[in-house]
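#struct-pred

JT: dropping the chains for the assembly here, can someone run the whole complex?
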Amino acid sequence: MRIARTINENYVKSRVPRGFNLSAARAVQRRLSALVVEKPLSESRFVAGLDVAYVGNTAVAAAVVVDSISKSVMDSAIIYTRVDFPYIPTLLSFRELKPMVMAYKSLGRTPHVVMIDGHGIAHPYRLGIAAHFGVTMRVPTIGVAKSLLYGECDVGADASPILDPATGDQLGAVIRCGAGVGPTFISVGSLVSLPDAVRLTRELCVSSVMPLPILMAHRLANKAKKSVKPQ
DNA sequence: GCGACAG
DNA sequence: ATCTTGTCGC
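RK: done, full complex below.
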């Protein structure tokens, strides 16, 4: 089944907080996206996964490092922080980047690559949260999402490229991690190649739409969330 | 014309 | 994402 999505900028504009300069944000996204580097990974054994859960305006961000050989957890970290910016499609990093960076920095071990719950360059301005993280932190990142934000692809296929409807450029790939599981959307964040991103994601997808590192981070964040005072 | 839109 | 019960499937 072929799907295609574009963004309604008026909808985005209607949700932006009073005083937020949207065109300036778009300019920043365009400028940073030019810094995205696509290259093969030199090492990919230790893979971190990042995810964020919420209790009101408190973000609970978790980072988990998985050994892709043994599939075991090598390290993990959780941080809690207040967020003020709302969720708005195409502006996710303005809400979640800081919590993710804090969780990442709390790790005691430096992973070879970071998988992030969200898109990389499969974004109307080529700067999804995984690309934003990779460019600002200067570490290899891969964007892995459960649904498409921008682009067109065939979700029925075993593997299909995600194309930019405006330019025809390839933005990423959508794959199936198994029968009965939904599609997994993959795109480069920075400092990795798409083939490496797809290979590593396939390797770490164990009967789930999400790869092990992100899945573990998701569970950890949700577990930690339970001990946060409701607001 | 209305609706859809990573998390 | 989060708010929420029971219910269907493996």
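JT: nice. Chain A has one domain: 9-225. Residues 212-225 of chain A form the longest helix (14 residues).
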